[in-house]
Automatic annotation (TrEMBL), chain A:
InterPro entries: CN_hydtase_beta_dom_C, Elect_transpt_acc-like_dom_sf. SUPFAM superfamilies: Electron transport accessory proteins. It comes from Roseovarius lutimaris. Residues 3-85 form the Nitrile hydratase beta subunit domain. It comes from the Bacteria. This is Nitrile hydratase. Gene3D superfamilies: 2.30.30.50.
From TrEMBL, chain B:
Residues 1-24 are annotated as: Disordered. It comes from Roseovarius lutimaris. InterPro entries: CN_Hdrase_a/SCN_Hdrase_g_sf, CN_Hdrtase_a/SCN_Hdrlase_g, CN_Hdrtase_asu/SCN_Hdrlase_gsu, Nitrile_hydratase_asu. Transmembrane segments: none annotated. Keywords: Iron, Lyase, Metal-binding. Residues 1-15 have a biased composition (Basic and acidic residues). The lineage of its organism: Bacteria, Pseudomonadati, Pseudomonadota, Alphaproteobacteria, Rhodobacterales. NCBIfam families: nitrile_alph. Fe(3+) binds at residues 123, 126-128. Gene3D superfamilies: Nitrile hydratase alpha /Thiocyanate hydrolase gamma (3.90.330.10). This is nitrile hydratase.
From TrEMBL, chain C:
This is Nitrile hydratase beta subunit. SUPFAM superfamilies: Electron transport accessory proteins. The lineage of its organism: Bacteria, Pseudomonadati, Pseudomonadota, Alphaproteobacteria, Rhodobacterales. Residues 1-27 are annotated as: Disordered. It comes from Roseovarius lutimaris. Residues 16-109 form the Nitrile hydratase beta subunit-like N-terminal domain. It comes from the Bacteria. Residues 9-20 have a biased composition (Basic and acidic residues). InterPro entries: CN_hydtase_beta-like_N, CN_hydtase_beta_C, Elect_transpt_acc-like_dom_sf.
């Protein structure tokens, strides 16, 4: 069962592992990957809580619109739960 | 960094270093600021007992021993042993360790190429790479060009690597954005039914495991 | 939660290292073998990380904060030793005075890496 999500479109400065080209884009959760220490805290030498991480699959048409080479090709990326909105 | 010293070779003797060993060619260039920083950081860490010279030597040897041949052996085993392939696709890190490869804490996912699916690995944010299995990445993997374009025009990028896939092949690009690393399990080439595992491993290139290449055909 | 920003017009915050989807030319295929000093930088990075002196994300943060100019002008391991040093300074492993003094001493040892390396 593919759960649909959208990557949050916020743009805070600093060390973030959600690429800008995916922000605001909709995809489906391909698989949960477990929980990992939050890189946004690790980067600054802070003690970091564990955050659930998901592999999210996007269609190229969603990412690039008409300019996609092939709309049905896909892109997978690992996105932390706090960067995802459930649809 | 530019090295604009056409006649540096005449500046000093090309014999043996003070410790009596020949200089490596790459140790013979004028000392840079960054090399001085490396030496200073290394010496300070050793003096403060944070690392030992033996640990540094051992770590370099460990890294030098990691190469695409390790990944090729894993791929060849998966081609030869269906049960191993199942385990590889379920947990590529565990399957690699099972073969005796010391991959440290690497979280590895294997993605399988088939007649209808082709996988491609990239890291757009930095240059994450399954280095604990395959060794250090090729220079092109770390370039702006590859990092920028692999996610938007993977087919055009693949053509630059000599891989021209039909539109009917579904391309799956994997951006290593967080804690996972990826290795492509290439499709086994036709005409290899009678080959041994060692022979099969010779067909598996580094690029085939990144997805910018295909396994060689015998 | 409702957002007050306009997602598609708010790309000013994109940082230089976040390259996915940007225009760029053909992939340069040339490569090089790693020099001893580069392998040492790599080893220090791995060892200090495994001993908990810094995290990979701390290194990435330092690399990102160096800016695009550093990416264009300096080689991979030049940037990495700078990031390792930045994190070790922040962790209090040694001081800038110790580093600067040592780098001066190293310059006096000889004109090449082979003579100055203390390996």
């Amino acid at each position: 069962m593919a759960e649909r999500v959208r990557v949050r479109a916020m743009m805070p400065p600093g060390h973030v592992r959600a690429p800008v080209y995916l922000r605001g884009k909709e995809g489906v959760i391909e698989r949960p990957l477990g929980a990992f220490h939050n890189p946004e805290q690790l980067a600054y030498g802070l003690s970091a809580e564990k955050k659930p991480l998901y592999r999210v699959r996007f269609r190229m048409a969603e990412l690039w619109g008409e300019t996609a080479e092939n709309p049905n090709d896909t892109l997978d990326a690992e996105i932390y739960e706090h960067w995802l909105e459930r649809l | 960094m530019p090295h604009d010293h056409p006649d540096h070779a005449h500046d000093h003797d090309h014999g043996l270093s003070p410790s009596g060993h020949p200089y490596r060619a790459d140790n013979d260039e004028p000392l840079t600021y960054w090399q001085r920083m490396e030496i200073a950081v290394r010496e300070l860490l050793i003096e403060k007992a944070r690392v030992s010279p033996a640990e540094i030597t051992a770590q370099i040897e460990v890294m030098d021993a990691r190469s695409p041949a390790n990944g090729a052996a894993v791929v060849a085993r998966a081609w030869s042993d269906p049960a191993f392939k199942t385990r590889l696709l379920a947990d590529a890190g565990a399957a690699s360790r099972e073969m005796g490869f010391d991959i440290g804490p690497l979280n590895l996912i294997a993605v399988e190429n088939t007649d209808s699916v082709h996988n491609l690995i990239v890291c757009t944010l930095c240059s994450c790479y399954p280095r604990n299995l395959l060794g250090l990445p090729p220079d092109w993997y770390k370039t702006r060009e590859y990092r920028s374009r692999a996610v938007r025009e993977p087919r055009a990028v693949l053509r630059e690597f000599g891989v021209d896939l039909p539109e009917s092949t579904r391309i799956r690009v994997h951006d290593s954005t967080a804690d996972m690393r990826y290795i492509v399990l290439p499709a086994r080439p036709a005409g290899t039914d009678k080959m041994t595992e060692a022979e099969l491993a010779d067909l598996v290139t580094r690029d085939a495991m990144i997805g910018t290449g295909l396994a060689r055909t015998p | 939660m409702a957002s007050t920003i306009h997602p598609m017009s708010d790309t000013d915050g994109r940082r230089w290292h976040d390259m996915g989807g940007q225009d760029a030319g053909p992939v340069p295929m040339e490569g090089h073998d790693f020099a001893l000093w580069e392998k040492r930088v790599d080893a220090l990075m791995v060892l200090c990380g495994s001993k908990g002196l810094f995290t990979v994300d701390g290194l990435r943060r330092a690399l990102e904060d160096m800016g695009e100019d550093a990416f264009e002008k300096h080689s991979y391991y030049e940037r990495w030793i700078a990031a390792v040093n930045q994190n070790l300074i922040e962790a209090g492993i040694y001081t800038l005075e110790e580093l600067g003094t040592r780098m001066e001493e190293i310059a006096a040892r000889g004109p090449t890496y082979g003579e100055a390396q203390n390996g």
